Amino acid sequence: MTISLKMRCFQIENMNDGGCAMLHTPKPSRLDTMIDTLPPYKTFEPRSLNGTFTIVSSDHAPNKFDHPNGKQRGLQHGNLPYGKFRYIPNGLPGVETRVLLLFTGGILSERISPQKFVEVTSTNPAKLYGLKKKGAIGPGFDADIVIWYSQKGFQPFKLTNEMLHHAIDYTPLEGIEFKNWPRYTIIRGRVVFSHGEVVGKMGYGQFIKRGKSSLPGPRDVWFSEWRP
């Protein structure tokens, strides 16, 4: 990511990670268990400007907290009063907030330009997957457009889980301040998201088969002895 997020990790049953600032508590809190993930969150400076990152993306591996097999298993498991690290489902929800976080922490914090933002979130992913009608605005491209609010007069706000549209009972970004938000999302010329609400019709989405990548890169160079 191109934004610094400093989150707490915790120590359970001598589980340590040298790259994470541990919160050394004898018993993890609800928040500690919610934000558990491997590899852990780290704080670092953005490097998009020098070309280190060509794409900003992530998998989406959410688990509910208040579920028999959810994150709460880290608080207590069997006869272990302090829980057990390896029983906590790994991963965090964040697919809905990823690009929004980059907009606030990248463009509005003057870490990256609007052009770089579009490049790493739209243009390069489309090139990577060979999606010839995606990733740019021009003749022959699908009219897939996100329109943001005007920055003038927009009031920053703190995110709550109730504002999101996922089926998970928490967000690790609860209380994080956002300085803008998408106003409209347009897919193939039709508005599907407007003023915080999904207005698109079920079934409007389409499966798109990937093509040959046009993103420059050392495709024939392997960085380890492993071969697919």
From TrEMBL:
It is an enzyme of class 3 (hydrolase). Its EC number is 3.5.2.2. InterPro entries: Amidohydro-rel, Metal-dep_hydrolase_composite, Metal_Hydrolase, Metallo-dep_Hydrolases_sf. It comes from the Eukaryota. It catalyses: 5,6-dihydrouracil + H2O = 3-(carbamoylamino)propanoate + H(+). GO terms for molecular function: dihydropyrimidinase activity. Its cofactor is Zn(2+). Residues 111-192 form the Amidohydrolase-related domain. Belongs to the metallo-dependent hydrolases superfamily. Hydantoinase/dihydropyrimidinase family. This is dihydropyrimidinase.
